[in-house]
Amino acid sequence: MKNLLQIQFLSLFICLFIYTGCKKSDELNPANIADRMTGNYTISLIESNGKSIKLPYNQNGQQINGTITIAKVSPTTISFSYSLVVVNNGVRNVDSETGNLDIKQNGNVIELYENNTLVGNFTNNVLIIDTGDTKITSNKN
Predict the structure, then answer these.
(1) Per residue in 38-96, pLDDT tens?
(2) Is residue 17 part of a domain?
(3) Count of structural domains within the chain
(4) In a domain, 129, yes or no
(5) Which tens digit of pLDDT belongs to each residue from 83-109?
(6) Exposed end of the chain (fewer CB within 10 Å): N or C?
(7) Structural domain containing residue 112
(8) Are the C-beta atoms of 46 and 118 separated by less than 8 Å?
(9) DSSP string spanning 120-132?
């Protein structure tokens, strides 16, 4: 009887050791957050002043489309560049900007910061930039 209890205790201990020692497959590694964001994105929605425009937009002689490119600078810093192309009755206008953003892991969400101010987030391959006046939603290609 004593041997049976010892075997059961040892089996329970081994099971607990194996269970708690296993690395969860969905565990996030903060050192790799910039790598997970690196790539090209297509802008799918722009919201500004209470109006929303789904992209690509093509109506009444006006076309709008946009892209975002993210590159890793360091494990916690990314290079962010966007390009918004507006064609109005054949006249092409390109608005673009490039800069670096700091990134931090917050649960399953990667938060983007500019000068310690939260300006966006990335989750499930969707990047949202929100400056307060304008909100841009884009999908990773």
Answers:
(1) 999 999 999 999 999 999 999 999 999 999 999 999 999 999 999 999 999 999 999 99
(2) no
(3) 1
(4) yes
(5) 999 999 999 999 999 999 999 999 999
(6) N
(7) 27-140
(8) no
(9) EEEETTEEEEE-S
